[in-house]
Design goal:
This protein is an alpha+beta fold. The protein is built from eleven helices and 16 strands.
Length: 370
């Protein structure tokens, strides 16, 4: 594999002061539980000698809490919400106010130098929280508002990827409102366009939430209705028979791709359970593909990342077909999982960047982008 260099600029900013780093986690999306597990890993790997760490959790009901405990193992459950020193909190949209902690004797302002939104799904990686940070004037790890929004909506991503000529699965857009009155027509149109099996996905979720594999007309109808529970826009794709290959990308103006990894789900497909609950999936790092194919995938990942306007980080997923080794784009995740078993940190670890150093570099990139 060609030599790839990953360097950090964090040394320059650390000589000035310790950064006040706010870690946002939780949220109201269906991916709340995944966020808690990601945040546990991030918080346990941040260096307290470099950072003043400010953990802020968002409950499933939308309450913001400044978590005042130091035991991050409480995050994957709900126990973190009940720490006696917790206080309601919020990032102020007013430029320069930082975090507001609402205490009994008044409001305390806590300066925030950079936010790492360890939030997955709706309001976390769709541009919403990024817009809040833009208003507040706080650097934010990951892509900006526009890139986050376009990358989160799989149908908009498809349009950009089509434009740059990157091969991807054939697809169709179905809208939730059409299902009430045109279900039979939609089923007929989809079966005319695709053969079974088909994949049905909400356009704007991650972690395979709401994704189904339809094998006949009855399961296709059920899959459309299931996806409609999560999004107004529903993506239907042709089935690609191939290896699932993922690559991690990091950087701003000159992004670099990690080595490639492969997921063998051990199930019908790499669904939510296979990712986070069961132990059926197996990761192969590096992926079991030829080096020339791996290099094509790394180059394509950077091309897609750049075309979407991403910065900081993203994970870009592909299929490599079994019969002829064709590279097919699947999707991009602008705030991928950071759990102990997540592919993004594992891919960079295999590329020579340890978890702690990876966090340092991502925070430096956020500061650099401002």
């Amino acid at each position: 594999m060609p030599e790839r260099h990953f360097s950090s600029k964090t040394e320059d900013i650390f000589v000035v002061k310790k950064l006040n780093v706010c870690i946002l986690f939780g949220g109201m999306s269906p991916e709340h539980a995944v966020s808690l597990r990601s945040a546990e890993s991030v918080l346990n790997n941040l260096n307290p000698e470099k950072y003043n760490i400010i953990p802020v959790g968002i409950t499933r009901e939308g309450r913001w809490i400044h978590y005042s405990g130091s035991d991050y193992s409480l995050l994957p459950g709900d126990a973190w919400e009940d720490h006696p020193d917790n206080c309601p909190a919020a990032i102020s949209p007013v430029w320069g106010q930082g975090l507001l902690r609402f205490e009994e004797d008044g409001v305390k302002q806590i300066p925030v130098d950079v936010v790492f939104p360890v939030l997955h799904g709706e309001n976390g990686e769709d541009g919403a929280v990024q817009g809040l940070m833009q208003l507040a004037g706080i650097p934010c790890v990951g892509p900006d508002v526009a890139a986050s929004a376009v990358s989160m909506d799989k149908t908009l991503t498809k349009l950009v990827v089509d434009h740059i000529g990157q091969p991807q699965a054939a697809w169709a857009l179905v809208r939730r409102g059409e299902l009430r009155h045109k279900m039979e027509t939609i089923l007929a149109q989809l079966q005319e366009k695709f053969s079974f099996p088909m994949f049905v996905k909400p356009a704007g979720t991650g972690s395979s939430v709401g994704v189904s594999k339809a094998t006949d007309a009855l399961s296709l109808q059920a899959a459309l209705l299931a996806a409609a529970e999560y999004d107004e826009k529903i993506l239907v794709e042709e089935f690609i028979r191939g290896r699932e290959v993922e690559v991690a990308v990091m950087g701003n103006g000159s992004p670099i791709a990690s080595i490639c990894g492969e997921i063998d789900s051990g199930a019908e497909f790499y669904d939510y359970d296979a990712k986070y609950i069961t132990d059926t999936s197996v990761a192969y790092i590096p992926a079991r593909i030829a080096e020339d194919v791996a290099e094509q995938i790394r180059d394509a990942a950077v091309k897609i990342y750049t075309a979407l306007g991403c910065r900081g980080l993203s994970r870009v997923d592909f299929f490599v077909t079994y019969d002829d080794n064709r590279m097919i784009f699947n999707e991009i995740n602008t705030l991928p999982g950071f759990t102990s078993i997540s592919m993004y940190p594992k891919l960079f670890e295999a590329s020579g960047v340890g978890y702690g150093d990876l966090l340092d570099q991502l925070l430096a990139l956020a500061m650099e982008a401002e």
